[in-house]
Design goal:
Elements: H1 2-23, H2 25-46, H3 53-73, H4 82-95, H5 101-134, H6 140-150, H7 165-175, H8 177-180, H9 183-200, H10 206-211, H11 213-226, H12 228-239, H13 257-261, H14 273-286, H15 294-298
Helix pairs in contact: 1-2, 1-11, 2-3, 3-4, 3-5, 4-12, 5-9, 5-11, 6-7, 9-14
């Protein structure tokens, strides 16, 4: 699952980067770092880091606005000092140059990434539980019972006689009593996994949310461009007027993004994630009774005598 997450994130990041390189070339190089930081934050969030989708997205748009303002809205600006850039970042929060698109992106990503984050944490918890019970500590009484069950017949020369099924079950249930107590919690864990997997395939579709990032950013930039004169008037009042060079950059350097992207059909980076989810939860549901039936699993097959009327009951051959 983590490999699938990372594959989707890399694809979405590359697609977002190509948006700037194709449609907004004047700011493509400078936008590379904010794009990288955005997807790094998203990856960390999925893996359980103490961060939020909202802070990651808004931090990205804070970094993006100075670039949009100085490269697209006012491409003649030459003096973009650190103080002026910081003023633009702070102004972004007040004048909302990207309209509702930034908030919409936060909403969409928060819903889908939440389910992925919870599934990632649940899987990590499941690994911890399985690892903690992989080496069950055997009591002295359990060890004696196991020896009596498997080796005491050898003292009578009965090397081919195996334990009776009922006798084996009694011994194993006694040895694994503490492990079998996990049954209720394990069943709840499987139910939680099933819920999260279903959420990821419904309204919290991770693939759809990640594939829509570039589109939301595109719409946000277009919105800022359309409202360029009003934004410039407000920024001039708050941050002052920066130094400009004569003439503007060629209009050819900004490609109408709608014309570019409409010819680029979306290709899913990891089309198998949905099938992986279904296969995974089907497999996990089969293990719902694992801890309750672990004694039965161990007392199956070659360990016990099933196809004979003669077996060892701990004291004698019956």
């Amino acid at each position: 699952f983590l490999e699938a997450f990372e594959s989707l994130l890399r694809f979405a990041e590359n697609r977002t980067s190509s948006l700037f390189e194709t449609a907004y070339r004047p700011m493509a190089k400078e936008a590379a770092e904010p794009v990288k930081e955005l997807f790094t934050d998203i990856s960390l969030y999925i893996l359980g880091a103490e961060t939020t989708v909202e802070s990651a997205v808004l931090r990205f748009f804070d970094s993006l606005f100075p670039l949009v303002y100085s490269r697209l809205i006012n491409p003649g600006i030459t003096d973009l000092s650190e103080d002026y850039t910081e003023c633009l970042r702070l102004t972004r929060q007040d004048i909302n140059p990207f309209g509702h698109y930034s908030k919409n992106l936060v909403t969409e990503l928060s819903k889908s990434l939440w389910a992925s984050r919870m599934l990632s944490r649940a899987l990590s918890l499941g690994i911890e539980v399985i690892n903690s019970t992989e080496q069950a500590a055997l009591s002295k009484e359990c060890s004696r019972a196991l020896v009596r069950m498997q080796y005491c017949p050898h003292c009578q020369g009965l090397t081919l006689i195996r334990p009776c099924v009922g006798y084996c079950l009694n011994v194993m249930r006694g040895c694994l009593a503490s492990v079998s107590e996990l049954d209720v919690q394990w069943r709840e864990f499987i139910s939680t996994l099933e819920y999260l997997v279903n959420e990821m395939g419904a309204s919290h579709e991770l693939e759809a949310a990640l594939s829509g990032i570039w589109s939301a950013i595109n719409e946000a930039v277009l919105h800022a461009q359309l409202n360029g004169p009003q934004l410039s008037a407000t920024v001039d009042k708050v941050c002052g007027q920066p130094r400009q060079q004569g003439g503007n950059l060629s209009a050819a350097s900004v490609v109408p993004v709608r014309a570019v992207t409409e010819t680029q059909p979306f290709v899913m980076a990891h089309t198998s994630l949905g099938s992986k989810r279904r296969e995974f939860i089907t497999y996990m549901k089969r293990s719902r009774t694992f801890y309750a039936s672990i004694a039965e699993r161990l007392c199956d097959g070659d360990l016990v005598m099933r196809d004979s009327s003669t077996c060892w009951n701990g004291e004698d051959v019956v």
